[in-house]
TrEMBL record:
Function: Mediates the uptake of pyruvate into mitochondria.
Family per similarity comment: Belongs to the mitochondrial pyruvate carrier (MPC) (TC 2.A.105) family.
Membrane-spanning residues: 43-63
Name by which UniProt lists this protein: Mitochondrial pyruvate carrier
Organism: Juglans regia
Keyword terms of this UniProt record: Membrane, Mitochondrion, Mitochondrion inner membrane, Transmembrane, Transmembrane helix, Transport
GO cellular component, one term: mitochondrial inner membrane
Its membrane topology: Multi-pass membrane protein
One Pfam family, short name: MPC
Gene name as annotated: LOC108986578
Gene Ontology biological process terms, A to Z: pyruvate import into mitochondria
Subcellular location: Mitochondrion inner membrane
UniProt GO MF annotations: pyruvate transmembrane transporter activity
InterPro entries: MPC (IPR005336)
UniProt keyword Transmembrane helix, yes or no: yes
């Protein structure tokens, strides 16, 4: 009971935005995971790139803020991974990452 009370009253506990902000941000990760089943033509390259930049900036924030917010850091590392994968799917669908024509060996 004492450990739960300590967590409840900690600087990153559920009485603070250091807890509820990351909890809400896990929705971005869940949405990205759900979108993996959609065809690449439905992915917005601009929005996915914006989400990559957003998560990269907030990873730095989560690391620099005192006390360090590991829950937020984990959330944005996960989101960055999912969004970069989605961005690669979009780029392949648009033909940006297609293999170059290989020379025919004689």
């Amino acid at each position: 009971m004492a450990s739960f009370r300590a967590f409840l009253n900690s600087p990153v506990g559920p009485k603070t935005t250091h807890f509820w902000g990351p909890v809400a941000n896990w929705g971005f990760v869940a949405a990205g995971l759900a979108d993996m089943k959609k065809p690449p033509e439905m992915i917005s390259g601009n929005m996915t790139a914006a989400m990559c930049i957003y998560s990269a900036l907030f990873m730095r924030f989560a690391w620099m803020v005192q006390p360090r917010n590991y829950l937020l850091l984990t959330c944005h590392v996960s989101n960055e991974t999912v969004q970069l994968y989605q961005l690669s799917r979009w780029a392949k669908g648009q033909g940006y990452l297609s293999e170059k024509d290989k020379p025919v060996s004689q």
